[in-house]
TrEMBL record:
Family annotation (PROSITE patterns): U_DNA_GLYCOSYLASE
Main location: cytoplasm
The protein's name in its UniProt record: Uracil-DNA glycosylase
Source species of the chain: Marinobacterium alkalitolerans
Name of the gene this protein is made from: ung
Substrates-to-products reaction catalysed: Hydrolyzes single-stranded DNA or mismatched double-stranded DNA and polynucleotides, releasing free uracil
CDD domains on file: UDG-F1-like
EC number: 3.2.2.27
């Protein structure tokens, strides 16, 4: 486990890898692999959210819970799947809210990489999962590591928009400085809860409005078409 491809985060987060909790997590993951358990995403993508969005470029933070646990889905960005993979239900609802909020037609894929490149940190609280076994790696140490990531953004960045969807994300973001950052809260976009207030929350337009007020570039939420990704 290393942050070689995330140089902006490395000075702050590399010390975490020497902590006993991260050593225990590493041993757990090695034991899972030795037991021939399939872990998602691939180890090369465990820190992809940090690699795609440098610390000094974070504008928006979206907190997910657990990676997708079926083959070919997870690639290290919360809510995102690789091109050509069916768009998961929560992301379908995110697209519905984008359409009602900003008039952006739903993308024909679920690949959110272009958001990450623009400064949207798509961070899962837990960075690995066992195939077909949701939440299998909860409580093993990842949460403490990602708490540190959120703490860093809170301390080191200015005027970030935190989109906290669902009670889990809201608890994880409880210590964010609301005098310095904009914290937006709504129910989770999952089909079980989206109708309780995720639909109509207007988070995407509110985020861009805030960024523009701070003299920052708004996020281009419209994703490139699948054909552009495959060319």
């Amino acid at each position: 486990m290393a942050l070689d491809k995330a140089p902006s985060w490395q000075p702050w987060l590399q010390p975490e890898f020497d902590q006993p909790y991260m050593q225990a997590l590493k041993q757990f993951l090695q034991a899972e692999k030795a037991a021939h358990k399939v872990i998602y995403p691939h180890s090369s993508n465990w820190f992809h959210a940090l690699e795609a969005t440098p610390l000094d470029q974070v504008k928006v933070v979206v907190i997910g819970q657990d990676p997708y646990h079926q083959p070919g889905q997870a690639h290290g960005l919360c809510f995102s799947v690789k091109p050509g993979v069916k768009t998961p239900p929560s992301l379908v609802n995110i697209y519905k809210e984008l359409q009602s909020d900003l008039g952006i037609a739903p993308a024909d894929h679920g690949y959110l990489e272009s958001w990450a490149w623009q400064g949207v940190l798509l961070l899962n609280a837990v960075l690995t999962v066992e195939q077909s076994n949701a939440n299998a790696h909860q409580g093993k140490g990842w949460e403490r590591f990602t708490d540190r990531v959120i703490e860093l953004v809170n301390e080191q960045c200015e005027h970030v928009v935190f989109m906290l969807w669902g009670s889990y994300a809201q608890k994880k973001g409880a210590s964010i400085d609301t005098h310095k950052h904009l914290v937006l809260k709504a129910p989770h976009p999952s089909p079980l809860s989206a109708h309780r207030g995720f639909f109509g929350c207007g988070h995407f337009s509110k985020a861009n409005q805030w960024l523009e007020q701070q003299g920052m570039q708004p996020v281009q939420w419209e994703l490139p078409p699948l054909s552009a990704l495959q060319s």
